[in-house]
Write a structure and sequence with these properties.
Layout lengths: L34 H13 L6 H13 L4 E5 L2 H11 L8 E5 L5 H8 L3 E5 L19 E7 L8 H4 L3 E7 L20 E5 L12 E5 L2 H8 L20 H11 L2 H18 L19 E4 L3 H13 L14 H4 L8 H6 L3 E4 L7 H12 L4
Parallel strand pairs: 2-3, 2-4, 4-5, 5-6
Antiparallel strand pairs: 1-7, 6-7, 8-9
Length: 374
Amino acid sequence: MTSQEAHPQRTGEPATTSAPHHGPPIPHNGPLVTEEDIAAVTEALRSGWLASGPRTAALEEAFAERFHPMHACAVSSGTAGLTLALRGAGLGDTGATVAVPTYGCSALLDAVLAAGCTPMVVDITERTLTLDPERLDRASRLDAVIAVHTHGHPADLDALRPKAALLVEDCCQSLGGHDEQGRPLGGIGDAAVFSFYATKVISAGEGGMLLQSDRAAWERVRVHQDPAAREIYTPRFNHRLPDPAAALALSQFRRLDRIVAHRRTLAARFTAALPPHIAPPPGLAPGQVPYRYCLRAADRAQQQQWIGHLRAAGISADPLIPARHLLHRQLGLEPQEYPVAERVVDSTVSVPLFAALTDEQAHRVAAALTGLPD
């Protein structure tokens, strides 16, 4: 989950080395809304059903079918889904320790704290930018781990499984992907959360989906979708997903495999365009969803040189997360305890890769990548 998608972090205007671009600027990200999507939302609006209703239920059924035997609950956001995953497991308001990767959106902290738990921020692996299992204490078992499949790269779930009583997959950037063993991301942990934010793999503007393997946990979170009065009062929040948003998400979910295939084609095209001295993004593997196409520069100077080269070609390249937004820094923790994340933010160059990218835009991106300076 990355808040930087809506408001990309700007780092000034680095020196440029490429020729001026021809054509309109290419954004870093953007949603793909088709006529099919518009028709689905229009039908929902004309039905007169604006609150959660039949389309929300249909979306839940579609996810439950794809990720059988998981139980599905549509929610108002990915953050809400993470919060409810912890509460559904009985960890709410217990101060339970929940490990999260430092390279990620601050919504991870929001979700853990909103659930009444305690976040433990952990450094990441160099290759996949996911939470590093080796950084966790081998002597004690955590209450929970939120394993983010960062940029679509699968976290090492098998290594994380014995580390915590509850394993939550954050699939907000990996819908439609599989791990190296061919298992669908979202169907491996005790719970999984997806986001339908505007620039995710599929979009409803906002919203998300929570999957849970334990039916009792699923039943506990369903009360947050029930607007009726409680027999015995307990506080709860409204985390429901309205029908028009569910209609949009369902329309896109039905063509998920095509969306994922297009992303993979784009990633392969960009890799083929790279000059010999530029390595492709580490961590890219068959089966995963290339949510981001992130090159890794040698240092900050080269990072800024590459970003300048691409921006001069009218391509909105981006470093994604500045150092001050790393979660350990947000909590005032010592940067030297998180060396991999500190190094990654000064080397990452994210190139536009999203479902709405046209063939002409992809051609311009590939051409600019071919000319990346050494």
